[in-house]
Amino acid sequence: MAEIVAEVVAAGREKADERHILLEVSDSASGTRVLADPDALSMICSNLVENAVKYTRDGGHIAVRICQEGMYVTVAVQDDGIGMSPEDAAKAFDEFYRARNEQTAGIPGTGLGLSLVKRLTELHEGTVSVSSQFGAGSEFTVRLPLIQPAG
To answer: Is the pTM of this model over 0.70?
Structure first.
């Protein structure tokens, strides 16, 4: 999991650097593995990191955390960006849904990224959630089951 997250963060670092956004990664689940398609994991993480960069103001901060919680690996992407209202957060994973307000008016997108994250996560027997506060940022959390060692 850490390798995929590192690749995704490296790919997003250029856009983050252009906008002076600090993009940090912490991994307290070193060596944990999930039974999942690597391309699907990459798409999940890419969508979350790209959205964080897209919706974080210049000079902002994004933290990507990997940790183990019981039988799950958790990847959380937290930003101090524009955030969402409770109504928008409740619909964030719906296909084609895009929050419409003056902060999002100039940000391109199809409204499919988060629905893809949800679908791919659920196909791997995981969950995805969002916690957000309008004007203060969002945190998206993906939980995927660990591969259990034989024995």
So the answer is: yes
Q: What is the mean pLDDT of the chain?
A: 88
Q: Are 136 and 89 in contact (CB under 8 A)?
A: no
Q: At what angle do helices 113-123 and 38-55 cross, to 10 degrees?
A: 150
Residue 45 CB partners (closer than 8 Å, separation 6+): 4, 5, 8, 75, 77, 142
Residue 133: pLDDT band by 50, 70, 90 thresholds?
Answer: very high
Look at domain 2-145 and name its CATH class: alpha beta
Query: N- to C-terminal Cα distance for the chain?
Result: 22
Contact indicator for 123, 145 with CB cutoff of 8 Å: no
Nearest one of 47, 46, 75 to 63, comparing CA atoms: 75
